[in-house]
Structure formats: structure tokens, C-alpha cells
Design brief:
mainly alpha; 448 residues; 66% helix
Length: 448
């Protein structure tokens, strides 16, 4: 769609005076960068770049390790019809099952190999690129910004590095983008689809249903007659939550049957809380803490009682050290947001062709791009608010979506711990916000 979406009745986001149209449709030609972004072949080029870089990562043939090895093994077990089992053979719900379940379907068709993992993630990455492009049109109101966001994400090294890895991040990012794309558009079929997608996403990351009130809250607040629309939006939210819960319910009942207790998604909440809240905690994941090690050394606990005890220890520490718990929060946010590029770690031990200097250069370039995206996304906030105020528009609209999605892992990190990989699913949204700041500058530079 070559023209600006800011003219659509449902889109009220504006730049100071957005004239984001192809050169042939305007009296004054846009700046050269904008003309390049609006070229008819630009989208195809950006997608080709996205796929090529991820194919290059797949060619590194990364052997699964740590969490990736667990997910790979569970998917292979499911594909072989053996069930979702721990390493010792007992039924488990320690890790959310959504990603191994999805990967097991591909394993049945293409075999349990690292190449199958790469292909599944490549398809997920390509679909994420399309959703990013189309959702960015709605978020930014600009075809130029949407295309720039796609190009930035295509070039983003950390996103490419994750594609060969049997981790949840690439698949979950697709589900999160799809959920937001569906929720941000009205319609009965989209509501039904959003519920199903969010249910699957919850089986990958248990806290995902928090996204529903975030997105629908923006949909409500952007409307001038929000009170009149409130019942319909609440009803839509309840339908989505009910459908999402219905997708999760069979797994919860399986846990009741196999483990003897109703467990909604997973049994690792207690240890996740404890590893972020203990005497050794510095904002990140601290499995080396003496209390955590002592708990791990116990052999009298089942999976459920281990989770219960970890939760009890964590809550006891928080209750005894409320000031320390509050003081950890800025450190947790720093651990979540300051660094990026952790996808490199798997290549250090598992890549068939690992060159330390090359990957160090990739990590450095990635960090520079990442910080630029964060800075531009922050800059876009005052630019957007000023432009909307001058245009007589309300402060809330779809431009807020990237910040709402970024707030989602931030809120979780404040309670649990901060790890850089947890911001991975928010990055496509932040590329949208960053691209809008760049296009603001291009629009200001255009002759009036």
C-alpha cells in the first residue's frame, strides 16, 4: 500500500504535517531517503535481506544447549509419541509446553534436526516481518516509517542470531505480533483468532494474557466516545480471555492428571522468583545463591513441592527485606534493557564455524544499533505528543502500543529478575517507534 495511512478515518496519529506519499502524488518531492523507502521494490528488498541474514545464521549449524537443548529434546519426545517428560522420564510441567508442542509438529514432518528448527524459525521470522510492516502502518500512520521499521528489524543481528536456536523467542515474537495485529482491528473473526493465538502464546509464556487489557485499553482511550464503547470492548476482552483460557485448559487438566494438582501452565514460577530475590541478587538471574543451591540439593521434594518451597523462600526473603526488594527494581530493569546481543552466546559453544573476532564485531554492531533504537524510541514520545497537541488530537492512540508492549516485560522483571533475552519480543515494536522518530526528522527537513 504505497500511500499514507494517516488519512484513514480510524487512524488519528499524525506528524506535524505528514505528506508521506509517493513522489508522483505530491507537488514537492520528499527527501532522497524517503523516496528510497517508498520505492515500489523496497519492501521486497527488505524481506530478501531479512531472509538472507537469517539463512546465514542457520548455516552456522548451532548445536542446542542449555534451555534450547531442553526444548529440542521435549519436542523430539512429543514427536515420537512419548509425551512431555523430564530428563528422568517422569511427566513434567516445569517448562511451558507451547514451543515444544509446535516444534514437535515440524519434527514429525521434517525430522528432529537443527535444520528443522532453523526452518520453523525462519518461517516465523518472515511472518513476523510482514506483521511488523502492517502493524507499523497503524502504529505510526506512515508508510515510510513502517518500511524503515521493517528494514531495521531485518538488519538487527540479534534477531537473526536467534533463528537457528531452539529457544522460544522467535516463535513467541510471532505470536505476540499476531495477537496485537488481531486485537488492534475490530471484527468477530479477528476476536476469535486473537483468543486462539493468545492461548497458544500463553502456553509459550504464561503471563501473555496481560497483553489483552494493554491493547484493548489503548483501543478504548483513543476514542472520544470511550465510555459508550466500553461495554463492547470489555465484552471483546472477555471473549478473548475465555478463548485463550480454553486453549490452555487441556494442558492444565493434563497437569492435574499427571502431577496431582491443577497447574495452569508451568511449575517454575517459584524458582524464577527465588533466583531474582535472595541475598545474592543483583538484578539478574542468580542460581549460585546459597539458598538456591541448598534447595537444588534437596532430594525430598517433588516438582510441585520444589516450586512451593522456592516460592515460600522467595516470599519470606521479600517480606524480611522490603527495602532491598524495592532497591533491586532499578537493577532488574538495567539487566533487562541495557545490553543486547545475547544470541551470540549459543554460537560460542555450539556453532560449527565460530570465529571469536567476527562474532565480537557482530555483538558490537548489534549493541550500537540496539542503543540507537532505544534512544530514537524515547525521542519519538515528545515528538509525537507535540505533533498531536498541535493537531488538536488526544494523547492516546496506537503510537502508544510499542511502549505498552515494552512495559509488559518490564513489569514482570520488577518482580522476578531482569535478563536481556526477555526484551526480545518487544523489539519489533520498538523498531516501529524508532522509525517514527526518523521520519519525523525527514518530514521536518522537507521543504514547505
Amino acid at each position: 500500500m504505497p500511500g499514507s495511512l494517516s488519512a484513514l478515518p480510524a487512524q488519528r496519529y499524525v506528524y506535524a504535517e505528514l505528506r508521506d506519499l509517493p513522489p508522483a502524488m505530491t507537488a514537492d518531492a520528499p527527501p532522497a531517503p524517503q523516496r528510497l523507502l517508498l520505492h515500489p521494490r523496497f519492501v521486497g528488498f527488505a524481506f530478501a535481506l531479512l531472509v538472507a541474514l537469517r539463512l546465514a545464521a542457520i548455516a552456522c549449524a548451532v548445536t542446542p544447549s542449555s534451555d534450547a537443548d531442553f526444548y529440542f529434546s521435549r519436542a523430539a519426545s512429543l514427536a515420537a509419541g512419548l509425551g512431555y517428560l523430564a530428563n528422568d522420564g517422569h511427566a513434567t510441567a516445569y517448562w511451558p509446553p507451547g514451543w515444544p508442542m509446535a516444534l514437535s509438529l515440524a519434527f514429525r514432518a521434517g525430522g528432529a534436526t537443527i535444520w528443522t528448527v532453523g526452518l520453523v524459525n525462519l518461517v516465523a521470522a518472515a511472518l513476523s516481518g510482514w506483521l511488523l510492516l502492517d502493524l507499523a502502518r497503524q502504529v505510526t500512520g506512515s508508510e515510510s516509517a513502517a518500511r524503515l521499521a521493517l528494514l531495521g528489524y531485518a538488519l538487527y543481528p540479534n534477531a537473526a542470531l536467534y533463528v537457528p536456536l531452539a529457544l522460544t523467542e522467535v516463535f513467541y515474537t510471532l505470536l505476540l505480533l499476531a495477537s496485537c495485529w488481531l486485537l488492534a482491528r475490530p471484527g468477530a473473526l479477528r476476536t476469535l483468532a486473537a483468543g486462539l493465538v493468545l492461548g497458544l502464546a500463553t502456553l509459550v509464556k504464561a503471563q501473555t494474557l496481560v497483553v489483552v487489557p494493554l491493547v484493548l485499553g489503548i483501543a478504548l482511550l483513543r476514542e472520544r466516545d470511550g465510555l459508550r464503547r466500553l461495554p463492547a470492548l470489555v465484552g471483546r476482552g472477555l471473549v478473548v480471555l475465555a478463548l485463550g483460557s480454553a486453549v490452555v485448559l487441556p494442558w492444565s487438566l493434563r497437569n492435574q492428571r499427571e502431577l496431582g494438582r491443577f497447574v495452569a501452565v508451568s511449575t517454575n514460577g517459584g524458582i524464577t522468583l527465588l533466583t531474582g530475590n535472595n541475598a545474592s541478587a543483583r538484578g539478574g538471574f542468580t542460581p549460585e545463591d546459597p539458598v538456591v543451591r541448598a534447595l537444588d540439593a534437596r532430594r525430598d521434594l517433588t516438582e510441585l513441592t520444589y516450586d512451593d518451597e522456592a516460592k515460600r523462600l522467595a516470599m519470606a526473603w521479600i517480606g524480611a527485606h522490603p527495602a532491598r526488594f524495592a532497591g533491586l527494581m532499578p537493577l532488574k530493569l538495567a539487566k533487562l534493557w541495557v545490553t543486547d546481543g545475547e544470541g551470540v552466546w549459543a554460537y560460542e559453544t555450539g556453532a560449527a564455524h565460530y570465529d571469536a573476532r567476527l562474532f565480537l564485531a557482530i555483538r558490537a554492531a548489534n549493541q550500537a544499533l540496539y542503543w540507537a533504537v532505544l534512544a530514537l524510541a524515547l525521542l519519538a514520545v515528545p515528538l509525537t505528543l507535540r505533533a498531536r497537541r498541535r493537531a488538536g488530537l488526544g494523547a492516546i492512540d496506537w503510537w502508544c502500543l510499542p511502549y505498552a508492549i515494552a512495559a509488559y516485560p518490564s513489569a514482570i522483571a520488577l518482580v522476578f529478575s531482569g535478563q536481556s533475552r526477555f526484551h526480545f519480543p518487544a523489539m519489533p515494536f520498538l523498531f516501529m517507534a524508532a522509525a517514527s522518530a526518523v521520519v519525523f526528522w525527514l518530514e521536518r527537513a522537507r521543504p514547505r
